[in-house]
């Protein structure tokens, strides 16, 4: 499969991009200053304190939000699953999808003055997979990585032991972004601490980072390799981005409405409606692609070993009402284990398993849960119909998710299912999930490729081996489909396979999709041009501040 | 000789307290269930069991507990607190980066608490019941208000509505006002209650009647005689409140998004980042021992009765 025409396509879309910006700039109906201006500082309130600031190690979204401005990737992904040149001007993929050859741009330099070349790609990927790096996420993104070959100074080939279709999606993430090999050699050990030790090719340099103090990024004036997905070429507009950490929701919103920050991330659902009516604030919202937020059912633990009970759980849950109430009407309930903005999302899943307590009752009756005990729960042979959905500690979940679980608990009680929520500390929780001992587990996962379904439903991906399949369901068809879809780049074939996977896991009752989280960003009125990347992370390259 | 022996005893006692705190922190964290490598890798790890084993071995977590403890003590003797598991920076660097914001917050809160608390006590001790009831009411409210709520209240009024003070950031002293108020006001309530109690006891002493007979009255009487008498209990209380400041800083720093040891503590405990937690415990224990030592040294200067007992 050849993608030689990528460069030409990119040129075209770059032109279109500029045209689009020009159009939107002149047609701005709000009377704001419409032509982007350079200069100024953007202050951004973040909700989470990053732990480790090294994107090749950390799995945190907030690390990516900051580092995306510092680290560039080989390719750039648009919102509809298309790939565009970035540090790689073009690429070829071997027919068996085990070898990706990238033809790099010749004019890219790191902000320490060293050149970005094939050797830099090799050094970075080698660092990610090196056990000493202890990569928690990026190493997983490299999948069945075999090695990187430097073909010539600006040509690099990445090899895999198996066909690996999701690689371009992975290559577009900041987690597979590039640090200067010189900086890695000199200060690689300090990358978790962020700051000047982190040297990339990106539109901003990492000026300072202090735990709790925030992060300051400064414009890289030499930047001229923005991807085609950006709205403008050349350096960024902003002189500086000043990230501050304000974990308390009400404080974050208050600083935004009082004009103390320009942008607040993770606006809580309870505030969104009010802020939409606030003239000095604009709300930007984008659904997160990936798995959404779902409840996975363990088919190896009674009573969930019975498909009828699993289907009853799906049908007895009044998600429309629950999600609307808990999230103030701001998030959509989910129908599929993929969120709607993900490539391969199967629209046919919508309304395929509507709330139907009558059907749930019927399913439970036929499964033999016909008795009732004093508390109104169903019994079979004197045993109560109880399902345990262990609760993650508060630090690892959100208030909204915990409240939603209570709503589900109330729904299930209506049909006679007792849903318990055993609280575990995080250590016990992880040990039990790795051992396959949790009857039900909730998870949300952001990703831009539907290969995620393999991680959750292929029997080879059990948690003991670094996968996420907590359903413990061994299904040859799901295994075959998810593996086949990882071995082809044919969009029609992939979406057909993923459609079948989505339909089958819903039918088997392996998952109860709950809701689609969205990235909600509040901005002050002087802020323009904030966008979202393919993973629905806020992007600041095109942002500018008026006056 | 006696003084040297006493000093040596005090230092040994202090070292004992610090060692005890470090040991407690070490074993408490090991008693917390859960595998450190698991927690370190988080809930969304894509890593294999091999990586897990490697992390465990690298951190020395596969060794028996007693050998980990001895190694920990050995490093401690050399002043080596190790590197953070999560942030992979030396613990000393992290403590250094975060110490000053917390120290300045704590000092500001303490000064505020002492001034407001003492002023409230002096103004109302032995006054008409209505005055005292009003003072008691605000003190009780201040003591019993959760500090995160007080913080949000102060922010809403003085920052979001009136725009007098910023929430946080590099705005120097103005950014310190609201956090210091949040941390200091509950302490001021405690101080006022204790100091008034002590003032009122003193005001009823016979020597007060003598002083009044000499023609002293009003503020002079309260400040020169009664407060001096109450200063001893105030000093002791201040030493104890130091602990509340360290604990309260955790919540206040979170609400105001301030850097500091408090926010470092929260993330270290959540992530079972043992070197950081033990480092923080050591630093706070040492500070507490030092503050107690200073209070003990100052007591005889404030209270002559203690001086006599020491020299006897």
Brief characterization of the structure:
Chain A has 547 residues and is of the alpha+beta class. In chain B, helix 5 packs across helix 8 (174-203), helix 7 (147-161) crosses helix 8 (174-203) and helix 7 (147-161) crosses helix 10 (218-256).
Structural description of this entry:
Chain A: Residues 1-27 form the signal peptide. Chain A: This is ABC transporter substrate-binding protein. Chain A: Belongs to the bacterial solute-binding protein 5 family. The complex is a heterodimer of chains A (547) and B (312). Helix content of chain A is 29%, strand content 22%. Chain A has 16 helices and 27 strands. In chain A, a hairpin with a 2-residue loop joins strand 7 and strand 8 (155-160). The model of chain A is unreliable at 1-33 (pLDDT under 50). With 312 residues, chain B is mainly α. Chain B is built from 13 helices and no strands. Chain B is flat. Classes of the chains: A alpha+beta (547), B mainly alpha (312). At the A-B interface, helix 4, helix 7 and helix 13 of A face helix 2, helix 3, helix 5, helix 7 and helix 10 of B.
Question: What attributes does this structure have?
Answer:
heterodimer, A: 547 residues, alpha+beta, five-stranded antiparallel sheet, 27 strands, disordered N terminus, B: 312 residues, mainly alpha, 13 helices, 79% helix, cell membrane (chain B), transport (chain B)
Apparent shape of chain B: flat
The structure class of chain A reads alpha+beta
- Tell me the structural class of chain B: mainly alpha
Number of strands of chain B: 0
User: Strand arrangement, largest sheet of chain A?
Assistant: 9-10-11-2-12-23-13
Fraction in helix of chain A? 25-40%
Q: What are the low-pLDDT stretches of chain A, counting only 5+ consecutive residues below 50?
A: 1-33
Compute the CA-based radius of gyration of chain B: 24 Å
Greatest interface and its residue counts? A-B, 53 and 57 residues
Portion in helices of chain B: over 70%
User: Tally the helices of chain B: what do you get?
Assistant: 13
Average of pLDDT of chain A: 90
Total strand count of chain A, please? Answer: 27
Taking the alpha carbons of the first and last residues of chain A, their distance comes to 49 Å
Biggest β-sheet of chain A, characterized? 7 strands, mixed
Task: Give the oligomer, counting copies of the same chain as homo and different chains as hetero.
Answer: heterodimer
> How big a fraction of the residues of chain B is strand?
under 5%
């Amino acid at each position: 499969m050849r993608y030689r025409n990528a460069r030409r396509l990119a040129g075209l879309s770059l032109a279109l991009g500029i045209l689009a910006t020009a159009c939107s700039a002149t047609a701005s109906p709000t009377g704001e200053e419409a032509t982007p201006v350079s200069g100024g500082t953007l202050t951004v309130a973040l909700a989470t304190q990053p732990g480790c600031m090294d994107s090749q190690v950390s799995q945190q979204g907030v690390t990516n939000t900051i580092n995306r401005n510092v680290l560039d990737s080989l390719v750039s992904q648009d919102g509809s699953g298309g790939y565009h040149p970035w540090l790689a001007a073009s690429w070829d993929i071997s027919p068996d999808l085990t070898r990706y050859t990238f033809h790099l741009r010749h004019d890219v330099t790191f902000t320490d003055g060293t050149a970005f070349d094939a050797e830099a790609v090799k050094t970075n990927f080698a660092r990610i997979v090196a056990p000493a790096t202890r990569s928690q996420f990026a190493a997983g993104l490299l999948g069945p990585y075999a090695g990187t070959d430097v073909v010539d100074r600006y040509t690099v080939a990445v090899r895999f032991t198996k066909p690996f279709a999701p690689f371009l999606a992975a290559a577009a993430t900041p987690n597979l972004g590039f640090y200067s090999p010189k900086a890695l050699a000199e200060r690689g050990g300090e990358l978790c601490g962020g700051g000047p030790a982190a040297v990339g090719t990106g539109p901003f340099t990492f000026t300072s980072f202090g735990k709790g103090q925030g992060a300051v990024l400064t414009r890289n004036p030499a930047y001229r390799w923005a991807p085609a997905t950006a709205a403008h070429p050349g350096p960024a507009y902003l002189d500086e981005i000043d990230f501050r950490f304000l974990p308390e929701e009400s404080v974050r919103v208050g600083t935004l409405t009082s004009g103390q920050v320009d942008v607040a991330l993770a606006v809580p659902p309870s505030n969104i409606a009010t802020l939409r009516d606030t003239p000095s604030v604009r709300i930007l919202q984008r659904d997160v692609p990936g798995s959404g937020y779902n409840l996975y059912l363990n088919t190896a633990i009674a009573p969930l070993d019975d498909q009828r009970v699993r289907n009853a759980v799906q049908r007895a849950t009044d998600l429309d009402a629950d999600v609307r109430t808990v999230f103030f009407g701001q998030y959509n309930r989910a129908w599929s284990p993929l969120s709607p903005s993900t490539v391969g999302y199967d629209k046919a899943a919508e309304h395929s398993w509507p709330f139907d307590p009558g059907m749930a009752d019927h399913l439970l009756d036929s499964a033999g849960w016909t008795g009732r005990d004093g508390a109104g729960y169903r019994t079979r042979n004197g045993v109560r119909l109880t399902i345990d959905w262990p609760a993650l500690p508060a630090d690892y979940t959100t208030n909204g998710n915990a409240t939603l679980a209570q709503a589900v608990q109330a729904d299930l009680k209506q049909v006679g299912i007792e849903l318990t929520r055993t609280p575990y500390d995080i250590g016990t929780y992880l040990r039990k999930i790795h051992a396959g001992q949790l009857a039900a587990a909730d998870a949300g996962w952001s990703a831009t490729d539907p290969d995620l379904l393999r991680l959750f439903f292929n029997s080879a991906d059990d948690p003991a081996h670094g996968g996420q399949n907590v359903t413990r369901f061994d299904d040859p068809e799901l295994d075959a489909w998810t593996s086949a879809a990882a071995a082809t780049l044919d969009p029609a074939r992939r979406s057909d396979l993923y459609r079948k996977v989505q339909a089958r896991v819903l039918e088997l009752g392996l998952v109860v999709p709950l809701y689609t989280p969205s990235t909600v960003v509040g901005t002050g009125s002087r802020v323009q041009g904030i966008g979202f990347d393919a993973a629905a992370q806020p992007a600041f390259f095109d942002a500018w501040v008026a006056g | 000789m006696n003084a040297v022996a006493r000093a040596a005893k005090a230092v040994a006692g202090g070292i004992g307290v610090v060692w005890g705190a470090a040991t407690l922190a070490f074993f408490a964290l090991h008693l917390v269930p859960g595998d450190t490598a698991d927690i370190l890798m988080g809930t969304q790890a894509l890593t294999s069991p091999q990586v897990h084993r490697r992390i465990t071995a690298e951190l020395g977590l596969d060794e028996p507990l007693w050998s980990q403890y001895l190694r920990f003590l050995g490093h401690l003797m050399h002043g080596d607190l190790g590197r953070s598991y999560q942030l992979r920076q030396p613990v000393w660097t992290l403590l250094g980066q975060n110490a000053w914001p917390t120290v300045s917050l704590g000092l500001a809160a303490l000064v505020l608490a002492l001034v407001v608390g003492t002023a409230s006590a002096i103004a109302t001790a032995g006054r008409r019941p209505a005055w005292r009831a009003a003072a008691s009411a605000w003190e009780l409210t201040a003591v019993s208000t959760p500090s995160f709520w007080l913080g949000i209240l102060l922010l809403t009024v003085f920052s979001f509505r009136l725009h007098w003070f910023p929430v946080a950031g590099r705005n120097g002293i103005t950014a310190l006002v609201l956090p210091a108020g949040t941390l200091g006001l509950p302490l001021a309530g405690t101080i006022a209650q204790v100091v008034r109690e002590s003032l009122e006891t003193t005001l009823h002493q016979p020597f007060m009647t003598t002083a009044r007979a000499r023609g002293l009255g009003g503020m002079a009487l309260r400040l020169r005689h009664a407060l001096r008498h109450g200063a001893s209990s105030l000093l002791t209380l201040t030493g104890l409140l130091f602990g509340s400041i360290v604990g309260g800083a955790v919540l206040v720093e979170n609400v105001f998004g301030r850097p500091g040891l408090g926010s470092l503590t929260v993330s270290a405990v959540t992530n079972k980042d043992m070197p950081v937690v033990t480092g923080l415990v050591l630093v706070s224990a040492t500070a507490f021992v030092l503050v107690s030592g200073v209070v003990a040294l100052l007591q005889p200067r404030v209270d002559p009765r203690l001086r006599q007992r020491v020299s006897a």
